[in-house]
Amino acid sequence: MTAEQNPAASATEATGVTESNGPQDHDEEAAAATESEADAVEQSDAAGEAPDEDAERVADAPSAAGTKKRRAGKAWALVAMIAALLFVGSAAFAGAMVQPYLTDRATAATKLNVARTAANAITTLWTYTPENMDTLADRASRYLSGDFEAQYRKFVDAIVAPNKQAKITNSTEVTGAAVESLDGPNAMVIVYTNTTSTSPLTKNVPSLKYLSYRLTMKRSNSRWLVTRMTTITTLDLTPKT
Fold first, then answer.
1. Which pLDDT score is estimated for 87?
2. What pTM was estimated for this model as a whole?
């Protein structure tokens, strides 16, 4: 067969390339593509490992933050508990210190009330004029109690007539009062007085006496009343004529 009869052979001869060379070139290109794909996969795997590590670090970050928050919360709870204990302790200490102070103040206030009542009682019992002598027992009764009230009224009834006749004026000034003892509703009080008496029968020359009394007092409801009175000292300072 001539070249004209075999066109394929003529084309091969003309190009200088045989049919067997085509498949070999194709295999080399495929191998190169395969290697490129393998490299791409390796690079992809390598790239994929970094995000996993970053993800682990990101996941660990909230855990560490949560641990810090829990530790901070426990610390603040401990501080709050210590502060509460200190507050309770200081309040108890303050209460222990204040209580005696309040008790002393209450006792002092009671003694002052008792002393004032005793001074008012003595002033009322031994202060009178001829004009108000008749009502002396009634005025004094608001400070007296029990048998002593009856005894004082009996005494006043006995001196009303002669004192009115002599026109005696008696004035008593309290110079001092002190609570001798205080035991619940019972008290003992010492009262110091200066008493001045005048009468036309003595040309109104004043009779001066210094007297002190011991009063036994008892609290009835909210009032302190005299249940007994005794004279402790009597000193006559009346000028001699």
1. 59
2. 0.61
